[in-house]
Design a protein that fits this description.
It contains 25 helices and 10 strands. By secondary structure, the chain is an alpha+beta fold. It has 5 domains: 165 residues, no CATH class; 276 residues, no CATH class; 145 residues, no CATH class; 68 residues, SH3 type barrels; 92 residues, 2-Layer Sandwich (Alpha-Beta Plaits). The strands form 3 sheets. It has a 5-stranded antiparallel sheet with strand order 4-3-2-1-5. Helix 13 runs antiparallel to helix 14, helix 15 runs antiparallel to helix 17 and helix 17 crosses helix 18. It comes from Rahnella sikkimica.
Length: 810
């Protein structure tokens, strides 16, 4: 039976071979390859490597692209490459179909042990199978190139969106043009498809959340989220209003604590509320990656926006006007009440749009639309708020109401916000949307950081003043436990307040230099601070324009912090210690010099100068020292010696090279000495080290008031001695110990010389005391009828006048 079927099959195979042999022989080329391979050799063998080379070149160019024009060209090239790959794949498809048809005619190879085919048929089948495999592989490679080109185009779009955040000088078209509003009225098909895909994923997650097995939990989380978001802050305010007057001591700490609590309660309640809403979807097993990522980003955006709203509510404090931190009048605070909430709402809504654009990979036009609209609304909010405040202030003046006393800093902040809003509007109108976005987010970030700094500084200072106040419960416990007096408590409050303010200023400086819109957390800021002080991250930094801006900010902020710290040391902290004035001045000078060095080093690091590249500076300094900087360096080192060894200090009365006066200031290079006539002599520090210096006040030296008088030979020395001692002892500046004394200095033909000596507290009062004593001694001598030695006379005899010549007093 099987043989009967084999005979027709064999005849059919032979007939097919006879029919196909002429056609195949005619289609063979000089190399003897079949016709099925001819299209592959012409269309794919050379075109496929060329397409792959184009894809590799595009990838290399993308890694080095920086400008928007370059990204645009690469996007067009990637799309053209995908189209060419699709064309090649479409051209290879008929060849594959033809080969498959020829194989279908030949049929499958017979099983082993059955009818044997001719060698020509076997060879022809092998060639067709090889051609089919080659064509299939080439089509798959072509499709892979097309998919890679499209993926590269999507990556380029993402890189272009990210580059728009840094290319602030790129003109993308005015917001008044039709291209800006095209994503709203005529959206891109790709954008519509991506957003529809995301919407379908959200819809599927929503349906799954309300399926029977998840319905109860979703309902509970939804109710908790709504209750927490709507009523959470108001519920927390009531017990806090009851706790504050009863648990916290009276003082400013209550208002700063309330402001911080209001900010935290607003931020946490709204943030937890949105996180609960997101948890409805993220807890589901089949939720897509897009929905999970969007829920996470939505929670972070909510915390940021809620923090802005909470700061505005806390600083305005319309519910507790008497506890308001800034000095803002009630009508003005009520006028501004809606602006922080509106600003937070704008940031939240358009932050969602930007996150969605980044998530789904929307086009650049859609991204620019979201950025431009967000910047526009923020700028309008920042423009309208000052206008309404000024209008309310004029109305209050017209009605005779008292407005707050405006400080220079408040006026400067008002002016900066207005100018920044105008810059944003101008950038939007002339087409610089990336610039408007950059300025907007920088304004928001700087305003957020400074507002938090203002609030936290008040909180820290008020906390430590309340903690160490002698009248509070905590102050009494510390005072009794450590056995300290009120002065030590005041000193501790000042010290800890300064440490807290320094830490906050450091955090704020790092946040301003490294923070971006919602991307810097407290832990990241702490890591940056550790890296800065530990030297990590300062090596290998290149000098780029952005680093120059950071260097300027570092210099300005560092100078302000150093100036504030020096003022605090000089006026607040050191006067409460037991140090003398000279020691305090030396410490302040040392602190200032070290601070300047640190600021310079940090500024160089922010500029991108590596520490190991500063060797040339040291070399240049060594050459300069050898030629002409010896004196400067010598005076600098001498100044450090004066500040550390302190042979002389500020306030000392010294005498050097005929110059006598008080040291007013010891600078890095020279020392200022103030003379008695209030003039100043500048003495190089090296002279105070290398020359003999008389320090009249070193070691609490006492002054000596000595007066030497000449009396006639006929006086009673004991009487005069008693009179001089009485005059000295009666003077209030003369010390009892050591006691005043009178010494017999000289006895001669001209008279008796007596010297009286007394001690005073300071050499500075010797001159005035000696003058007072001379007045008093002269008066007492006249009352006692005692005269000083008379002036000598000279007798001149004229010729012929004899002995009775006229005497002339010389």
């Amino acid at each position: 039976m099987q043989k009967m079927f084999r005979v027709p099959f064999l005849l059919l195979a032979l007939l097919s071979c006879l029919l196909l042999t002429p056609a195949l022989s005619q289609a063979d080329d000089s190399t003897g390859q079949p016709a099925a391979e001819q299209p592959v050799k012409v269309n794919a063998v050379t075109a496929l490597p060329a397409l792959q080379k184009r894809l590799d070149q595009l990838k290399q160019q993308v890694s080095s692209a920086k400008t928007d024009k370059k990204f645009t060209g690469l996007t067009d090239a990637a799309q053209a490459l995908a189209e060419d790959a699709d064309k090649l794949s479409a051209a290879l498809a008929p060849d594959l179909a033809q080969v498959q048809a020829q194989l279908d005619v030949l049929g499958p190879a017979p099983a082993p042990g059955t009818l044997t085919e001719t060698p020509q048929v076997i060879s022809q089948r092998n060639k067709l199978n090889n051609s089919k495999t080659l064509l299939t592989t080439q089509i798959e490679q072509t499709k892979a190139i097309a998919v890679g080109a499209r993926n590269l185009s999507s990556q380029i779009s993402g890189l272009r969106r990210d580059a728009l955040k840094t290319q602030i000088a790129l003109n993308t078209g005015s917001i008044l043009g039709g291209n800006f509003w095209a994503p709203l009225f005529n959206p891109n098909d790709d954008d519509a498809a991506r957003f529809d895909d995301f919407g379908s994923q959200v819809s599927d997650a929503w349906k799954q959340a309300w399926s029977p097995e998840w319905r109860v939990g979703s309902g509970i989380y939804l109710l908790l989220a709504l209750a927490l978001g709507i009523f959470g802050r108001h519920v927390l305010d009531k017990p806090m209003n009851w706790i504050l007057p009863r648990w916290l001591p009276q003082g400013r700490f209550r208002r700063s604590f309330l402001a911080c609590f209001t900010t935290l309660s607003t931020t946490l309640t709204l943030g937890f509320s949105v996180q609960l809403l997101g948890y409805i979807f993220t807890r589901l097993p089949d939720t897509s990656a897009w929905v999970n990522e969007f829920a996470q980003q939505l929670g972070e955006l909510t915390y940021f926006s809620a923090l802005i709203a909470g700061l505005g509510i806390a600083l305005l404090s319309n519910n507790h006007p008497s506890w308001r931190l800034p000095g803002i009048a009630d009508p003005l605070a009520k006028t501004l009440a809606s602006f922080p909430v509106l600003l937070a709402t704008f940031i939240f809504l358009f932050g969602i749009i930007e996150q969605l654009n980044n998530l789904v990979g929307a086009s650049v036009s859609a991204t620019l639309f979201g950025n431009g609209l967000a910047a526009l609304l923020v700028a309008l909010n920042c423009l309208i708020a000052p206008v309404r405040v000024n209008r309310m202030r004029r109305k209050m003046k017209a009605d005779g109401e008292q407005t707050e006393a405006r400080s220079t800093l408040a006026g400067l902040i008002h002016l900066v916000i207005s100018i920044t809003a105008v810059v944003i509007m101008l950038a939007l109108l002339i087409g610089y949307i990336p610039l408007a976005r950059f300025v907007t987010f920088e304004l928001l970030w700087i305003g957020l950081v400074l507002s938090c700094l203002y609030l936290l500084i008040h909180f820290v200072v008020d906390f430590f003043e309340s903690l160490f106040a002698p009248g509070t419960h905590s102050g009494k416990i510390i005072k009794g436990t450590l056995s300290v007096n009120d002065r030590h408590l005041s000193l501790a409050a000042t010290l800890f307040s300064a440490i807290g303010k320094t830490a906050l200023l450091l955090f704020a400086a790092v946040a301003l230099l490294n923070g971006t819109f919602g991307s810097t957390t407290p832990l990241e800021l702490l890591a940056k601070i550790v890296d800065i002080w530990g030297g990590k991250g300062l090596e290998g930094v290149n000098i780029i324009p952005a680093h120059a801006v950071n260097a300027v900010l570092c210099l300005v902020v560092g100078w302000y912090i150093l100036r504030s710290a020096r003022r605090w040391l000089d006026n607040d902290f050191l006067p409460k210690t037991m140090m003398d004035r000279g020691m305090r001045a030396s410490l302040v000078t040392l602190f200032t010099n070290v601070g300047y060095v640190l600021i310079i080093l940090l500024t160089l690091s922010s500029l991108g100068i590596e520490w190991n590249k500063l060797a040339w500076i040291v070399s240049a300094l060594s050459v300069g020292i050898g030629f002409g900087l010896q004196e400067i360096v010598k005076n600098f080192i001498s100044g450090l010696i004066l500040l550390t060894e302190r042979p002389v200090k500020v306030g000392d009365l010294i005498s050097i090279s005929g110059v006598e006066g008080d040291i007013r200031r010891i600078n890095v290079r020279a020392t200022e000495i103030q003379l008695s006539d209030k003039s100043t002599v500048i003495v190089p520090n090296s002279q105070l080290i290398s020359q003999n210096v008389r320090n009249a006040t070193m070691g609490n030296a006492q002054g000596v008031a000595t007066i030497a008088l000449t009396f006639p030979l006929d006086i009673d020395p004991e009487q005069v001695r008693s009179l001089l001692l009485d005059a000295y002892n009666a003077h209030e500046q003369i010390l009892d110990t050591p006691a005043a004394s009178v010494s017999f200095k000289e006895l001669g033909p001209t008279g008796i010389i007596l010297s009286v000596t007394g001690y005073v507290n300071s050499p500075r009062i010797v001159s005035g005391t000696r003058s007072d004593l001379l007045y008093e001694i002269l008066k007492m001598l006249r009352d006692a009828g005692i005269s000083l030695s008379q002036t000598q006379t000279m007798v001149i005899e004229r010729p012929g006048s004899g002995r009775n010549a006229q005497a002339e007093e010389s």
